[in-house]
Design brief:
With 95 residues, this protein is mainly β. The protein is 0% helix and 63% strand.
């Protein structure tokens, strides 16, 4: 079926070393971005860059092998029909 709302799941596993999975769902077709930031707010990795997705469930893999241990944030931005949905979660990389 089609999801009833926008949702961003906590990455799994968390803490991770060096690979983790991030699940999200979107109830309508739209543009999706998924960006990883370090603790200072600096963008360190773009996993999805305003890509068109149909309504459904998705999984994106993040490989932190080139990053140092620490806390990171990932932000999900979905834009459908001019309305933006933004969700941010925290993840921890242990090397």
């Amino acid at each position: 079926g089609v999801p009833g709302k926008y949702e961003l799941s906590q990455n799994y596993p968390n803490p991770f070393n060096p690979v983790t999975k991030i699940n999200f769902q979107i109830p309508v077709d739209g543009q999706v971005s998924l960006i990883v930031y370090d603790v200072t707010g600096r963008e360190v990795k773009t996993l999805l860059n305003n890509e068109q997705h149909t309504a459904g469930y998705y999984t994106v893999e993040f490989n932190g092998g080139s990053f140092s241990s620490g806390t990171y944030f990932y932000r999900f931005i979905a834009d459908a029909g001019g309305k933006k949905n933004i969700i941010t979660k925290k993840m921890i990389l242990i090397r």
